[in-house]
């Protein structure tokens, strides 16, 4: 008999949040206009606000972080035979369908992501290929970082590190892009303003639809000339949108109301990580939980791996996703309550406190 679901706690990602009442009201009342034929007035307000938050000249709303990264890479890598240096566990390389290559013809040159989300600076420099180099080689145009680094567990890149990569980029005449899908999480966790974190970057893609809970969208920031080129590319990719003020209004509410909630997401993540780590058969690197992402390592039981555990947790109403064969990813967000945490812990205890019955 299937245990009745007592409640549903959705920890699959911070992309699962539902628009708040204040967002829905703002959406309903948004001032709008055609953003292809002119400028949607609410989009203009949002773009100005995010450009100021990031300390960059200009900004542009895009429907997804994937499109934000793609446009940014393609603006910087505007010549055939261009190469981008990025982490081997970066979202651009792993989860964006190889768009930089398949759509942009840009060659990815991966460098190992360390556990803390960085790439060794010496390895980045060794990967740079110069236009004066060997006839066999593509030409490096861009370095991409990711802050926080999602696949390393939401780790924050230190400011000093980003500045050093920026210096390296300048030394070799390269540009620096930051995939800032969870940049607000990094800013809150580091206690450093967004402007300072991205100071060395030529462009940044900032998700509004993740931790701060907008229903849709990201914003890319950079110089005025970067955004002018980006706007053309967005249209080329079919991203020219009409009355986007409906979406931008919700994003403005997210910016103004939800950045302040991120610290609590991080606190909840730490509490849940500590609780899970107390369950004997589970292992969590609690010290590595810097923001809202937790990795839970399961016993290496081929009869009950991450996929099986996620299915069993789903029956209890806890929604999480497998990260690897024996690892589960949990992502906290502002619509998770303290009592949800207690319930999630009880479900993991129910599942893992006893050694599973030999499966028939
Ligand atoms: C680090 C990172 N970058 C980019 C993206 C892409 O954002 P979107 O899902 O809006 O395309 C995501 C996840 O969604 C992400 O986790
Ligand atoms: C899976 C990935 O694309 C998404 N950005 C997430 O973290 O949920």
Automatic annotation (TrEMBL):
Co-factor(s): pyridoxal 5'-phosphate
Modified residues (N6-(pyridoxal phosphate)lysine): 210
GO biological process terms on file: L-threonine catabolic process
Pathway: Amino-acid degradation; L-threonine degradation via aldolase pathway; acetaldehyde and glycine from L-threonine: step 1/1
Annotated EC: 4.1.2.48
Keywords: Coiled coil, Lyase, Pyridoxal phosphate
The keyword Coiled coil appears for this protein: yes
Catalytic reaction equation(s): L-threonine = acetaldehyde + glycine; L-allo-threonine = acetaldehyde + glycine
Domain Aromatic amino acid beta-eliminating lyase/threonine aldolase, first and last residues per copy: 10-297
Superkingdom of origin: Eukaryota
Catalytic class of the enzyme: lyase
InterPro entries: ArAA_b-elim_lyase/Thr_aldolase, Low_specificity_L-TA-like, PyrdxlP-dep_Trfase, PyrdxlP-dep_Trfase_major, PyrdxlP-dep_Trfase_small
Family, as annotated: Belongs to the threonine aldolase family.
Protein name per its UniProtKB record: low-specificity L-threonine aldolase
Species in which this protein is naturally found: Brassica campestris
């Amino acid at each position: 008999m299937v245990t009745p679901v007592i409640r549903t706690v959705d920890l699959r990602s911070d992309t699962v949040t539902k628009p708040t009442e204040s967002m829905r009201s703002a959406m309903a009342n948004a001032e709008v206009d055609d953003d292809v034929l002119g400028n949607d007035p609410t989009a203009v307000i949002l773009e100005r606000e995010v450009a100021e938050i990031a300390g960059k000249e200009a900004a542009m709303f895009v429907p997804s972080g994937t499109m934000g990264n793609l446009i940014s890479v393609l603006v910087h890598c505007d010549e055939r035979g261009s190469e981008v240096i990025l982490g081997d566990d970066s979202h651009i390389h792993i989860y964006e369908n190889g768009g930089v290559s398949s759509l942009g013809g840009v060659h990815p040159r991966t460098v190992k992501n360390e556990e803390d989300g960085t790439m060794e600076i010496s390895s980045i420099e060794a990967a740079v290929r110069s236009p004066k180099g060997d006839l066999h080689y593509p030409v490096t145009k861009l370095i991409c970082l990711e802050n926080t680094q999602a696949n390393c567990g939401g780790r924050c890149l230190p400011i000093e590190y980003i500045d050093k990569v920026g210096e390296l980029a300048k030394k070799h005449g390269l540009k620096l892009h930051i995939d800032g899908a969870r940049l607000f999480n990094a800013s809150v966790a580091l206690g450093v303003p967004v402007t300072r974190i991205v100071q060395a970057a030529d462009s940044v893609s900032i998700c509004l639809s993740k931790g701060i809970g907008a229903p849709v969208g990201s914003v890319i920031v950079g110089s005025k000339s970067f955004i002018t080129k980006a706007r053309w590319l967005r249209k080329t990719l079919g991203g020219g949108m009409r009355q986007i003020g409906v979406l931008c209004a919700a994003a403005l509410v997210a910016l103004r109301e939800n950045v302040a909630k991120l610290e609590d997401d991080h606190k909840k993540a730490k509490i849940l990580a500590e609780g899970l780590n107390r369950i004997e058969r589970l292992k969590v690197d609690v010290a590595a939980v810097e923001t809202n992402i937790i990795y839970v390592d399961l016993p290496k039981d081929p009869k009950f791996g991450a996929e099986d555990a996620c299915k069993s947790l789903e029956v209890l109403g806890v929604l999480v996703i497998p990260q690897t064969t024996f690892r589960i990813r949990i992502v906290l967000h502002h619509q998770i309550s303290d009592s949800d945490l207690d319930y999630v812990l009880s479900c993991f205890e129910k599942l893992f406190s006893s050694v599973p019955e030999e499966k028939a």
